[in-house]
Amino acid sequence: MRCITGGRKTVFGSFGRLIKAGFLLLREDVLIPRELSHHLSPPARFFGGSLRFWFARRGIQDRVGLRYARAFESLGPAFIKLGQVLSTRGDIFGPEFIRDLAHLKDQLPPFEDAVARRLIEEALEQPVETIFAEFGEVIGAASIAQAHRAVLKDGRKVAVKILRPRIEQIIADDIAMMRLAARLIAFFSPASRRLEPEAFVDTVAQSLLLELDLRLEASAADELGAIINAEPYMSAPKVVWHYVARRVIVVEWANGVPLSRPEALSLPGIDPKGMADNLIRSFLSQALNHGVFHADLHEGNLFAQAPDHLTAIDFGIIGRLKPAERLYLAEMLWGFLRRNYRRVAEVHFEAGYVPRHHNVEAFAQALRAVGEPVLGKAATEVSMGRLLTQLFEITAQFDMHLRPELVLLQKTMVSVEGVARRLYPEHDIWEAARPVVREFISKELSPVAEARRLIDKLVQRLKDDDPAERAMRDQALLLLVKSELKQSRNLSVLAVATAALALGVMVWVALT
């Protein structure tokens, strides 16, 4: 009975928070803002106007961006995260909107210095004075944590990140509210179910919960930082492992100016195009070549140095891609770059993103309608709002469901492209992506790579064989190799094919 009562209390509490959030969004006129009413159908326009008449504050004159910022900040971390994503898309919402939301990235009200010191001492079980020669001011305050400038006893400059007090309970309440909202949306709007609102919230919830243990962030920063620092596009500060706990993390100082500050783009000798290229290439290299990527690349987490150097911080959210997902992503990007819409369509079907009952040629035709107006054009020549509307319409026409495993990738791609376009408004994301995607394709779809995958399949199937079937292996193996070679697109080189067959036979002999 206690569990049932607790569950009911949670549901009632979430419902109350949801009503409060809806009321606040209506009061600030951001749920169906007046600035967007001309895009709506007459019934929706009438409905939005009625809500505005009854609930919006009288005489509200602030810009829509200021209203969104005020509402998101009042509603807490989950909504602030949404605001951070929106604040990267100046090409969709306009520069004023972006400026109005900019402070959500790292300039929220901080908690007091005395509280920060107490939390550090509780987490690291040492007085602040024994760890740091200097413990300075707040350099950034975000929705979940804030960071301080400090100097260790050995003279190293560092940043100290501390979780906000009671943030665990706040996040738990936000997640419960989002889950309730997802269930209500799915129940009342059958059309929304293909967007998998509950699975989407589960993915967001998992990433938020991981941010509440800074030991996990330290591990991610160490793993991904090594990858980033080994490549020429970006750098990452190192973790000071002696001073890592669940609620506190210390990392070496990141030089440069945060991209969220206006002065970042006016640094002497700055090369905005080179910096935008490096951002796109670093993200794609992380995702494609390594299967792990920084999934929170908004401007508050990127520091700029002339001419085109970027340093990434805050590894609280990272995304991971399995080998098959990396290959699908690369093939889709490469297909768009070569205007091979048929291949892009085929990859969607092979990955299961489009149901099999649809027609490949029809989907390729739809993709051509999306790709041709965009490819080769500068960002200033592309209407991102129109493009996103068209993409949404196509996903509905072809019954494409949201893929929970790709949510973080899609969210990060939206943010990264938005930051790149703010850095350099004429940026061509496709040309920036080309060298990384081409290198990955040449490596992973080469005859040698296909032969390697073939051998892996052979080894796995041979290991799975029942001992009673061993007498049939010689004939089955030959048929299997022929089948795999026939399905392999790039094993056109006879020498590689022969080598793959010979290696497969040797593996079979070794296992018998």
Structure description:
By secondary structure, this protein is an alpha+beta fold. The chain folds into 4 domains: 2-104, no CATH class; 167-210; 256-438, no CATH class; 447-511, no CATH class. It is 58% helix and 10% strand. The chain contains 21 helices and 10 strands. The protein has helices at residues 2-27, 42-55, 64-75, 77-86, 90-93, 95-101, 113-124, 128-131, 167-188, 197-210, 214-229, 272-290, 323-337, 341-351, 360-371, 384-397, 407-423, 429-444, 447-464, 473-487, 494-511; strands spanning 132-141, 145-152, 157-163, 239-244, 248-252, 257-258, 292-294, 302-305, 309-312, 318-320. Strands 1-2-3-5-4 form a 5-stranded antiparallel sheet, with helices on both faces. It has a 3-stranded antiparallel sheet with strand order 6-8-9, covered by helices on one side. A two-stranded antiparallel ribbon has the order 7-10. Strand 8 (302-305) and strand 9 form a beta hairpin. The longest helix is centred in the N-terminal third of the chain and has 26 residues, at 2-27. The protein is globular, with a radius of gyration of 26 Å. The N and C termini lie far apart (59 Å).
Summarize the topology.
Layout: H1 2-27, H2 42-55, H3 64-75, H4 77-86, H5 90-93, H6 95-101, H7 113-124, H8 128-131, E1 132-141, E2 145-152, E3 157-163, H9 167-188, H10 197-210, H11 214-229, E4 239-244, E5 248-252, E6 257-258, H12 272-290, E7 292-294, E8 302-305, E9 309-312, E10 318-320, H13 323-337, H14 341-351, H15 360-371, H16 384-397, H17 407-423, H18 429-444, H19 447-464, H20 473-487, H21 494-511
Antiparallel strand pairs: 1-2, 2-3, 3-5, 4-5, 6-8, 7-10, 8-9
